[in-house]
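Researcher: I'd like a candidate sequence for this fold, 324 residues long. If you have to choose between options at a position, lean toward the conservative one.
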């Protein structure tokens, strides 16, 4: 099924009404103003073809909240840009998914209340993968809406993505039982007013590996990573933080808030910028570099890669990570 200005189907909303389980909906390049849609199908693929199509809320919404609402299982969304979700309850989402099974790939969600928001309905089966995507400037300026907000789920994986500049919320928040957050850029940057960079409020098994993480001076919460801040409802609870570059601009910064004294291990992380308290609890620290300068190219201007000859190169401790 194809949608576009020169197709029989001109609007995405029309395609959402006609699509059936198992369909592939392809959207041509262009700007689709106010083209909000409710997608009830299972095993659905919705993807932009060629240059990424741009979908704007333009004052419209599904159920007075969302730009796109997916209610079916096993949904894949690829190569689209969505902005403008607003709700009277301040919880609108560029993409909201209330089924089980979601993959987002090469999406750009910005200037919504929530970029992506998933439900708590399927805590034992819902698996969510986000990769090669960008989330920017989402939030409600009150801390209740976030760039990425994952509800209670079996597993969440975020990789090769870029989340930045949240307005009052977290860059990544997940209530999943298992979390793997790897090889992303998660940064406040100029004008960013995030709360936590990463919030895993209900504990569980989590691995944060190989990310660039930056907390800005205008942060609304001194914590960078928060673990089990609301509860530890899962049977297994442990967090490993390995091989990340963490740069702090907040003079009251705390790298890890471990509110319930659960098992947390930090290995081979670079900690730069303004001095920060490593943790407000007891965690295991192995071979983390905290010298003021360990070879980042120009972190004040958001260039965090290491220069040739940096002291951090080949300084890592061998650590076997086997995430869930």
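Model: Candidate sequence:
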């Amino acid at each position: 099924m194809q949608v576009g200005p020169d197709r029989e189907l001109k609007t995405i909303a029309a395609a959402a009404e006609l699509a059936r389980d198992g369909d592939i909906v392809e959207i041509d390049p262009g700007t689709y103003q106010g083209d909000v849609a409710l997608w009830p199908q299972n095993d659905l693929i919705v993807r932009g073809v060629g240059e990424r199509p741009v979908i704007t809320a333009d004052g419209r919404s599904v159920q007075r909240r969302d730009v796109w609402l997916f209610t079916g299982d096993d949904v894949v969304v690829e190569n689209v840009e969505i902005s403008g979700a607003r709700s009277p309850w301040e919880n609108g989402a560029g993409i909201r998914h209330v089924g089980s099974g979601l993959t987002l790939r090469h999406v750009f969600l910005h200037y919504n209340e929530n970029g992506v928001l998933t439900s708590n309905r399927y805590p034992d089966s819902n698996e969510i993968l986000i990769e090669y995507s960008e989330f920017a400037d989402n939030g409600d300026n009150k801390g209740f809406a976030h760039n990425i907000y994952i509800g209670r789920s079996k597993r969440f994986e975020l990789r090769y993505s870029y989340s930045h500049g949240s307005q009052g919320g977290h860059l990544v928040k997940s209530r999943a039982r298992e979390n793997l957050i790897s090889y992303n850029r998660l940064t406040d940057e100029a004008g960013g007013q995030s709360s936590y960079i990463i919030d895993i409020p209900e504990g569980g098994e989590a691995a944060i590996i190989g990310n660039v993480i930056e907390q800005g001076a205008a942060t609304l919460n001194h914590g960078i990573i928060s673990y089990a801040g609301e509860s530890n409802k899962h049977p297994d609870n442990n967090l490993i933080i390995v091989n990340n570059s963490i740069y702090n601009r907040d003079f009251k910064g705390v790298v890890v808030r471990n509110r319930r004294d659960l098992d947390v291990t930090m290995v081979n992380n670079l900690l730069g910028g303004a001095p920060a308290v490593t943790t407000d609890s007891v965690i295991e620290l192995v071979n983390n570099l905290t010298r003021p300068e360990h070879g980042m190219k120009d972190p004040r201007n958001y260039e965090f890669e290491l220069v040739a000859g940096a002291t951090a190169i080949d300084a890592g401790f061998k650590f076997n990570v086997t995430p869930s």
